[in-house]
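Researcher: Re-running this chain for the archive, since the previous output was lost when a drive failed. Same request as before.
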Amino acid sequence: MIIEVNGISLNYEKLGQGYPLIMLHGNGESLEIFKKLAKKLKAHYEIYLIDSRNHGKSSSTKEISYEDMREDIYEFIKKLNIKKPNVIGFSDGAIVSSMIEIKYKDTFNKMALLGINLSPRDFKDKIYSIMLEKFKNSNNPLEILMLNEPNINLEELSTIDKDVMFFYGDYDLFKDSLYDKLKKALPKAYHKKMIGYDHSSYINNKDIIYDDLIKFFEN
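Model: Regenerated structure tokens:
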């Protein structure tokens, strides 16, 4: 399905019945990465799988920012009159979810944030150096985005007054110091380290975290 929001077209799929749940993918992906997980979750939730702008079947723009993506999804929620959904956001999707809740308080009910970072400097030094070299002459707005954003500070993050669960891979892209920052900003949040997995291997076309999500959302 297509919906017009914030001057662009967003592609989305709706499935299942129950409490509303929004699922937001990461950079360079599409809603397809969540299909296996959503197939199980749809027995419990009314799920909205969304292609972010410049991804999947949604509109492409020459430039992109997390602020744009934040407004896209917030307007999506308002336009469809979705009341306080739960959200599962992976990587860019986790960033966007956090930015929505920071600016628009009480949008979400519970938040599962997978593979989030607060700044490009959260990348491990070697990975960031490789990215800088690889993308230094890039015209790809998604690659430029990763090098320059997000810029979420701990004070902003600490204003999120929701049940939050952070997931991250044992071999994730980001420095261990990031997880210390997350614990400092949201000391009551749950944290799960996915042993043996990297940034996306426990998410992309997987349902590994299904039981954790059900327990988190239902408690």
